[in-house]
């Protein structure tokens, strides 16, 4: 053993014993016989106490700051859209509601059947239709959390239209839906129609929350939402302070940052109502058949005039003396389709500095943009979601798709719902026309649009933003955060403790034994 160096203390789980390090210079026999000067009771006791103190300090630091076993809270939102209802379950750590980017979508359930507005003549069925998904939700939320889990239902443009057309029917539908939701074990907070402004603004909140842009005060992403009955555009523009058009302005203070959001919802410009508007233009004279450039060549369908015109978006234009039905014959021509689609937009009047269409104010576009819901479904089907595809290429691909014979389309996509399949030429053309002619995206700014379905596992849509708002989960001011993360804190305490120990050993230097011999060079 070597007397030249102090003992090192190696951690032994049962005993803390000083262990001598291997010596550089082999001790002589006489040295080995000498009494080791470090083995005085004082140095041994001080060293043992020092080691115990360090181990205790580090253990306390680790245990005290160890992340607690995660407990979660839950929230449920039902999105009662015009075409269907979907249920979303969100989850977040119970102890830190206020931190952004922490609420995640845990599960979603698509309600079977159409949207609740389609049950106007059988309202009870609207309530029944939700039961299966509510049952599923019970399995996804731990039972002991059921009673404290808020449950919301928000209805969008389908119910807005039904309410305009027949408010008694819309109330009955709400009555039936509320009855079902009140019976659930969750804490039902009410069912209501969202305004177009809310729908647009909450979609924007969702996208920017999931992208972690709000807490960090980063440049925000605009939100483009295409539904079946309405479509929303929301973005922050440096030139927009709200004064030019107050009803397009929503202001937020989130995490200590002020946002002046431009948002507009176009009722009747969701893709299903836009198709009605387009068909209404093609059937103004009440014909028995039309050649439709927005449907693939060889596609034919018999449509009922009263069904087509049964919507407040077109009902005032129903042609008089029209037969019961008309035949729609696809001729698949993108350019011609775009000409027909353009007719549903009005570009003639604008009382503001600039407008999108129908006399609606829109400030200068400021990207980037996330386009979701039907934008994504359609562009994904057409393989056009890649951001590197130029606007010209998108048009060329769409032109080719529209010109593809219907028989070939059905052969290539045997598993796709025929209703969707038949409408992709129209829907793709409508999306391009809306974005370019409607919102004024150009070949340059088109590449600012990203077609998205989910962000970090959560669906892009208004539901998450709606819940975050109603549960006050986004604070107006930036929350205080601990200056160091847990791992950083533990590492610093460990390093400091070791430094103290080394200092302590060095401070005992006067007690260190002197080497009696010069090292021998062998
Ligand atoms: O897989 C799909 N392919 C094409 N369109 C789809 C698909 N899934 C949903 N959609 C469409 O997305 C739209 C969703 O609209 P939603 O029901 O949210 O209406 P709203 O937001 O206007 O109330 C509808 O037009 C629906 O047909
Ligand atoms: Ca929607």
UniProtKB/TrEMBL annotation:
Keywords: ATP-binding, Calcium, Disulfide bond, Glycoprotein, Hydrolase, Magnesium, Membrane, Nucleotide-binding, Transmembrane, Transmembrane helix. GO terms for biological process: nucleoside diphosphate catabolic process. Its EC number is 3.6.1.5. It catalyses: ADP + H2O = AMP + phosphate + H(+); GTP + 2 H2O = GMP + 2 phosphate + 2 H(+); UTP + H2O = UDP + phosphate + H(+); a ribonucleoside 5'-triphosphate + 2 H2O = a ribonucleoside 5'-phosphate + 2 phosphate + 2 H(+). The active site is at residue 199. It is found in: Membrane, Caveola; Membrane. Its cofactor is Mg(2+); Ca(2+). GO terms for molecular function: apyrase activity; ATP binding; GDP phosphatase activity; ribonucleoside triphosphate phosphatase activity; UDP phosphatase activity. ATP binds at residues 228-232. One of its GO terms (cellular component) is caveola. InterPro entries: GDA1_CD39_NTPase. It is a multi-pass membrane protein. It holds the Pfam family GDA1_CD39. Belongs to the GDA1/CD39 NTPase family. Catalyzes the hydrolysis of both di- and triphosphate nucleotides (NDPs and NTPs) and hydrolyze NTPs to nucleotide monophosphates (NMPs) in two distinct successive phosphate-releasing steps, with NDPs as intermediates and participates in the regulation of extracellular levels of nucleotides. By hydrolyzing proinflammatory ATP and platelet-activating ADP to AMP, it blocks platelet aggregation and supports blood flow. Homodimer; disulfide-linked. This is Ectonucleoside triphosphate diphosphohydrolase 1.
């Amino acid at each position: 053993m070597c007397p030249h160096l102090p003992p090192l203390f190696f951690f032994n789980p049962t005993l803390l014993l000083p262990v001598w390090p291997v010596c550089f210079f082999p001790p002589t026999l006489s040295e080995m016989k000498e009494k080791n000067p470090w083995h005085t009771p004082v140095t041994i006791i001080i060293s043992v106490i020092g080691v115990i103190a360090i181990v205790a300090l580090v253990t306390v630091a680790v245990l005290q700051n160890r992340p607690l076993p995660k407990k979660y809270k839950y929230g449920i939102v039902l999105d009662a859209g015009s075409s269907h209802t979907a249920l979303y379950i969100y989850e977040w750590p119970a102890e830190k509601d206020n931190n952004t980017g922490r609420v995640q979508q845990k599960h979603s359930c698509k309600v079977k059947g159409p949207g609740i507005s389609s049950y106007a003549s059988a309202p009870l069925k609207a309530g029944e239709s939700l039961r299966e998904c509510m049952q599923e939700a019970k399995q996804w939320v731990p039972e002991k959390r059921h009673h404290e889990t808020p449950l919301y239902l928000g209805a969008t443009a389908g119910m807005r239209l039904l309410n305009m057309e027949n408010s008694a029917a819309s109330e009955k539908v709400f009555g039936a839906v509320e009855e079902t939701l009140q019976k659930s074990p969750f804490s039902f907070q009410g069912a209501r129609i969202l305004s177009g402004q809310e729908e647009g603004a909450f979609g924007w909140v969702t996208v920017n929350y999931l992208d972690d842009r709000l807490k960090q005060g980063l440049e925000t992403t605009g939100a483009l939402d295409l539904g079946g009955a309405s479509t929303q555009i929301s973005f922050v523009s440096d030139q927009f302070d709200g004064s030019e058009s107050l009803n397009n302005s929503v202001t937020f203070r989130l995490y200590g940052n002020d946002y002046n959001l431009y948002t507009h919802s176009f009722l009747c410009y969701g893709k299903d109502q836009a198709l009605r508007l387009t068909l209404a233009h093609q059937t103004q004279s009440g014909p028995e058949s039309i050649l439709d450039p927005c449907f693939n060549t060889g596609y034919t369908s018999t449509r009922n005039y009263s069904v087509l015109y049964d919507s407040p978006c077109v009902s005032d234009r129903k042609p008089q003396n029209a037969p019961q039905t008309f035949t729609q014959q696809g001729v698949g021509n993108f350019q011609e389709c775009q000409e027909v689609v353009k007719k549903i937009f009005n570009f003639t009047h604008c009382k503001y500095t600039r407008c999108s269409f129908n006399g609606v104010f829109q400030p200068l576009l400021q990207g980037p943009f996330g386009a979701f819901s039907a934008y994504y479904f359609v562009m994904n089907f057409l393989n056009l979601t890649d951001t590197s595809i130029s606007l010209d290429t998108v048009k060329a691909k769409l032109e080719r798709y529209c010109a593809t014979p219907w028989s070939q389309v059905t052969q290539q996509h045997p598993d796709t719902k025929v209703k969707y399949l038949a409408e992709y030429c129209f829907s793709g053309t409508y999306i391009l026309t809306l974005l370019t002619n409607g919102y004024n995206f150009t070949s340059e700014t088109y590449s600012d649009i990203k077609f998205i379905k989910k962000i970090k596992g959560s669906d892009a849509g208004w539901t998450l933003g709606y819940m975050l708002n109603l549960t006050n989960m986004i604070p107006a001011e930036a929350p205080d955060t601990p200056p160091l993360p847990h791992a950083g804190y533990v590492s610093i305490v460990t390093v400091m403790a070791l430094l103290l120990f080394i200092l302590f050993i060095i401070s005992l230097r006067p007690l260190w034994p002197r080497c009696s011999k010069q090292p021998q060079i062998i």
